[in-house]
Amino acid sequence: MALLAAQVSGCALLAGPGPAPTTYDLTARAGGNLGRTGAQLAVREPRAIQLLDSERIVFRPSAENATYYGDAQWTDRLPKLIEAQLVESFAQGGVRTISRTTDGLNVDYQLMTELRDFSVMDGPGGQVARVAIYAQLVADTEGRALSGELFVAEAAVKGSDTPAGVAALNEALGSALTGVVRWTLRRI
Fold first, then answer.
1. Are strands 144-156 and 126-139 parallel, antiparallel or unpaired?
2. Smallest Cα–Cα separation from 181: which of 151, 153, 158, 159?
3. Could you point out which of 9, 14, 109, 131 has its C-alpha 20 to 30 Å from the C-alpha of 144?
4. What average pLDDT score do residues 63-75 get?
């Protein structure tokens, strides 16, 4: 019996790993003419719970349960990708000087964010991508929190495969980023 178990486990080792997951990137940016400012802004990498702080793409079969798409991953940790999209959105949106807090520049304001949801969920009307980002604006010279706001966006998933879920997440992210950029530009 022990010999049979050794042979079976040896066969499993010879089979090798399964296919590599497909890698997806975020392509969403804030859209439209959102305004201009001469203020200098630094964006901090979003905080996130462990479920979201990875390269894995979250799927929620119900509000209480979360799992990951087994055949897919992001190109990097999700908070790092969101930070890059925020920086790019502000650069395109009219901020004179935009940087990351890790760049060490003296700036007028910092935008601190928390990623509260970034998942595809099963719902009564079909699957929905949901993005929730809490943003807080801080006066960098004083370290004083000026204002905070929660931005939530949803997009219907048009299909049942992973690419359809990723496309809906990008659509919802674009709406959330537009809200964050517009809100920030009105305050600085």
1. antiparallel
2. 151
3. 131
4. 94
Enter the pTM of the model: 0.85
Residue 50 structure tokens: 């462990």
On the question of pLDDT at 95 being above 50, the answer is yes
Q: How far apart are the first and last CA of the chain?
A: 72
Domain coordinates of the chain in residue numbers?
22-187
Q: What is the DSSP string of 153-172?
A: EEEE--SSSHHHHHHHHHHH
The pLDDT tens digits for 77-92 are 999 999 999 999 988 8
CA distance 12 to 56: 25
Q: How far apart are CA 41 and CA 113, in angstroms?
A: 13
Phi, psi (rounded to 5 degrees) for 121: -125, 145
User: Which DSSP state fits 75?
Assistant: S
* pLDDT exceeds 50 at position 159: yes
Chain position carrying tokens 């390269």 = 55
Superfamily of domain 22-187: ABC-type transport auxiliary lipoprotein component (3.40.50.10610)
CA–CA dist 11, 105 (Å, integer): 56
Is there a contact between 43 and 87 (Cβ–Cβ < 8 Å)? yes
* Spatial distance between the Cα atoms of 184 and 188, rounded to a whole number of angstroms: 6
Strand ranges (E), 54-108: 56-62, 65-74, 95-100
